[in-house]
Amino acid sequence: MAPLRKYHAVVLGAGGVGKSALTIRFGRNEFIEQYNPTIEEEYRCDLIVDGERCILEILDTPGTEQFTALNERYLQQGAGFLLVFSLIDENSLRDIDSIRQQIFQVKGADMDIPIVVVGTKLDLNTEREVSRARIQELAKQWNLPFYETSAKRNWHVSEVFEDLVRQMRKCYPRDEHGRKKDPCILM
């Protein structure tokens, strides 16, 4: 039996957008009500995606305004990225574009990099600042999947992480002997 595949995901975005709430909801199925700025937290989740069991190691990072020197290290370490913004904060979406560009600078613009863009706080619909039309426009422009989630209500949380695992599985396949193949590069 082949060893369990292990994937390394990094959760990035501005402070207060719900990165930790999303990660804790997925990893522990809990919702943390109060905001506590994250320094750096790691979570290890055993999950099954499309019938295949794997381990997802998730690095929950501080808000983008709270780190700069660590930024490049996070980008180098990650095999896949969740770019998190708040649906009730238009500015947090702009931060995501900057992070997305940094990932391609560090990893290489010609790489196929597993990325999922996540809008949080879907349950606060009356406070929404980011329209669905804007999200659809960016999804098309960036050619990335976008999800709208609520950690509080547990809406679409697992889909985000499962999509990222599928992308990493596709980008970093194993050969017929169970060994990792070289990372995929689009030319």
UniProtKB/TrEMBL annotation:
InterPro entries: P-loop_NTPase, Small_GTP-bd, Small_GTPase, Small_GTPase_Ras-type. Its main location: membrane. The keyword Hydrolase applies. This is Ras-domain-containing protein. GO terms for cellular component: plasma membrane. One of its GO terms (biological process) is signal transduction. Pfam families: Ras. It is found in: Cell membrane. GO terms for molecular function: GTP binding; GTPase activity. NCBIfam families: small_GTP. It is a lipid-anchor. It comes from Wolfiporia cocos (strain MD-104) (Brown rot fungus). SMART domains: RAB, RAS, RHO. CDD domains: Ras. Keywords: Cell membrane, GTP-binding, Hydrolase, Membrane, Nucleotide-binding. Signal peptide: none annotated.
